[in-house]
Amino acid sequence: MDARFLDYYNRELAYLKELGGEFSASFPKVAAHLGMHGNTVSDPYVERLLEGFAFLASRIHLKMDAEFPRFSQRLLEVVFPHYLAPTPSMAIVQIPFDLTEAAKSTVNGAVLPRGSVLTSRAIAGVKTRCNFVTGHELESWPLDIVEASAGMLAGDMPGLGRQLRGKEAKGEVRLRLRYQTPGAAGRPNPDKLTFFLAADDALATLMYEKLIGHTVGVVVSVPGQAGQTMVLPAQALQPEGFAADQALLPNDPRVFQGYRLLHEYFAFPQRFMFFSIAGLKAPLAKLDTDVFELTVLLDCDPEGLVGTVDKSSFALNCVPVINIFPRQGNRLLVTHDGVEHHVVADRTRPLDYEVYRVDMVDGYDRGNNPVTSFVPFYRHVGNQYPGAQAYFSTRRESRRMSETMMRHGGRSSYLGSEVFISLVDAQEAPWPHAIDQLSIQMLLTNRDLPLLMPVNGERDVEVETDQAMRWGRVLKGPSTPRFAMADREVTWRLISHLSLNYLALRDQDPQSGAVALRELLSLYADLADPMVAKHAESIIAMASKAVTRRLPVSGPLVFGRGIGIEATIDEMHFAGSSPYLFGSVLEQFLSRHVSMNVFCQMSLHSANRGQIATWPPRWGGRPDA
What we know:
Elements: H1 4-26, E1 36-37, E2 40-41, H2 44-79, E3 90-94, E4 110-112, E5 117-120, E6 131-134, E7 138-140, E8 143-152, H3 160-163, E9 171-179, E10 192-197, H4 201-213, E11 215-222, E12 225-233, E13 237-240, H5 257-267, E14 274-278, H6 281-286, E15 291-298, E16 314-316, E17 318-322, E18 325-328, E19 332-333, E20 340-343, E21 354-364, E22 370-376, E23 391-398, H7 403-408, E24 417-424, E25 437-445, E26 461-463, E27 471-476, H8 490-499, H9 502-507, H10 510-525, H11 530-533, E28 539-550, E29 559-569, H12 580-593, E30 599-606, E31 610-614, E32 618-619
Parallel strand pairs: 22-23, 29-30
Antiparallel strand pairs: 1-2, 3-17, 3-27, 4-7, 5-6, 5-26, 6-17, 8-9, 9-15, 10-14, 10-16, 11-12, 11-15, 13-14, 18-25, 19-25, 20-24, 21-22, 21-25, 23-24, 26-27, 28-29, 30-31, 30-32
Helix pairs in contact: 1-2, 5-12
């Protein structure tokens, strides 16, 4: 029973006794038979009547409380639907190029499309295997990282000043790579290589800051041959994971993409630990060797990287994955004794699947003949479904522990949630026509199964599509899935989300702007591990002003006005790791929050070490009102 019921009961009973005492004192003749004086009731029958009424009033109070979160859930389903869904488990998987399976002539790499399915190994005591889908397109190459190091700029690279356009290189991060297929005929010729920072989190964030924030050029060379070098510009090295076509969570046109970035960062920050080096095709074609080096030139001292960076700090052929996949569930038999129907993906294994989202519902009669298709009531925009008269709406509630789980414990701490579906017409009244079965197309997760899957082997997951990439191993994760928002928290989180926009940051003083941004970040910090959740509290000032900068466009010099934002953080909240990745996500969020006809430029400052980074001006991504 809900613990609030007893509190409501006591409050109702006390109110009735107090009001009855006042009534008896004001009208003693009329109320003489009530036997109520002050808070005491002398007549036991009257007291029983009051207790019964308090019981019924408490039940009504609970029902009224239950309706208010349902209303706010409906509103959230329109404006912030990602808040109503659980956060699935995520991981980083390395899928090497398998020369034993690929044709011997296939040496130019293989492409695994975004959205490809990976299946886990069997889990002890469970029949279901976990399904993951890739968040990026993966180009896998028959290359190995044989050596990696960091240090001050070596003396084997003369004459770099002219090629770096006046920028001074002080440090370097050097990667030595070797073809798995020796000989000129077997060498691949990639134009872009994508690397994952596979070191521990503290070192990986520091590497990310040095590589993304301080690169002035990339040298492609042959070890020991100073004459065979080519210099690529700093723009050749770029971070990966921020583009819309690299999203892990399902894209939804109703969700502002900046919120998705915050969601993914706090749920699994390692998914952003990728960078790529492009423009390699021409330099590699000129190198007659099976081993080559990529030297990233830095404009700073590589402090913290010297002696700690080695070949295990980097990984090729990696991709972020998420435990979410489409599936058509078992036919749902419709009973006519209620307006809601419990959605179960697989009746034989209900605890192995959790509904992330219901996409489409088809209704059938008793003879298995199609009757009508139901479209989302709260998700359609404008004339998305012309002529539609049949709709469905969903409601989610947290799954409760069964008596068996209470007695013996569950298989993990994550219980997940359950989804209920209602069939309605255009006025959200119950669907008036007879429907006997429902076929439901939905997005599912494997609930808590990723926490139980065996990892750290060479064959943690199996690739279902490409013969040149058959197996993969999990490098990071799987992360812990997170609950959807609890009912009682929905309203206040909705109000917090609706009350914040970038104008609030611009119009307020730096401390008030920091409070507003911390409030927004705290909504997503609940998804994070405790160490990452502290990042939301690190912002101590957020100032913004109008600035004039050269616009980031090609052609003649053009200057324009935009918004300059200075964020100041306390690095004590990062526990030895670098805040640069956090700043990068924040910069991407704010630039998307700005109108597309102006630019945004953000700088990150630390109360401990001053300015950390200033990002180049970026065009706003939000359409004008």
